[in-house]
């Protein structure tokens, strides 16, 4: 079993301390993916009234593949400072979990939008989308430990006891997630809606893509850090 529950502040501090493991080439790769995929998406996005073409579809596939890869290597580096860019069988197990989590997020977001349909204004659309995203993040809080475990090479058979060992830690993890990750998720949703709903010249749009890439990098890194702390708690380690 895991240790007695720790406080939300301990989880928050431990998560922030782990960000120091992202430096040099790993940090550069994270920023290159989050900023680069934004710029590629903006460059291939269809004009208003036009249907997405093959270039946009290929850009979307590239984005998913790169985000899965960078999530994997960043998560592994935060769990183990020796982790590098190599991928192997553990990457495919990690990617399978990401696909399942993506399906779950889409389902929860769709259900949330039925309950809280977006208002005509852009702010209403942002609120409805953010509520769905936040709801999924809170529902799936224990699954963060699975991300960290699979990135570190754990077999699928370990996931059940990791889930059970996090019993009692949910509130602390939820609090840290809400403080560290959700603010950047809110900004990311806002920037995404602005980029697709507002007519913006290419120059300012590229600048928005860079800013949103920085926000997305922070969101991803902090989520991975909370996941690493969740794994420590699930394996009986110290949050600090």
UniProtKB/TrEMBL annotation:
Transmembrane segments: 27-48, 54-74, 94-114, 126-150, 171-194, 206-231
Alphabetically ordered keywords of this record: Membrane, Transmembrane, Transmembrane helix
Protein name: Uncharacterized protein
């Amino acid at each position: 079993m895991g240790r007695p529950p720790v406080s939300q502040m301990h989880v928050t501090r431990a998560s922030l301390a782990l960000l120091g493991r992202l430096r040099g080439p790993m940090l550069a790769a994270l920023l290159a993916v989050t900023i680069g995929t934004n710029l590629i998406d903006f460059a291939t996005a269809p004009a208003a009234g036009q249907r997405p073409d093959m270039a946009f579809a290929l850009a979307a596939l590239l984005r998913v593949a790169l985000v899965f890869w960078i999530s994997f290597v960043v998560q592994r580096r935060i769990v183990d400072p020796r982790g590098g860019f190599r991928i192997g069988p553990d990457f495919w197990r990690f990617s399978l979990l990401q696909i399942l989590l993506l399906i779950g997020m889409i389902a929860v977001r769709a259900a949330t939008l039925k309950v809280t349909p977006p208002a005509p204004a852009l702010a209403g659309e942002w609120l409805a989308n953010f509520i769905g995203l936040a709801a999924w993040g809170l529902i799936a809080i224990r699954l963060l430990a699975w991300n960290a475990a699979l990135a570190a090479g754990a077999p699928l058979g370990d996931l059940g006891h990791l889930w059970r060992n996090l019993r009692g830690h949910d509130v602390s993890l939820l609090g840290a997630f809400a403080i560290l990750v959700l603010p950047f998720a809110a900004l990311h949703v806002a920037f995404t809606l602005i980029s697709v709903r507002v007519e913006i010249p290419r120059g300012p749009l590229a600048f928005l893509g860079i800013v949103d890439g920085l926000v997305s990098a922070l969101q991803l890194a902090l989520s991975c850090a909370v996941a690493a702390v969740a794994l420590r708690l699930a394996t009986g380690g110290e949050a600090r």
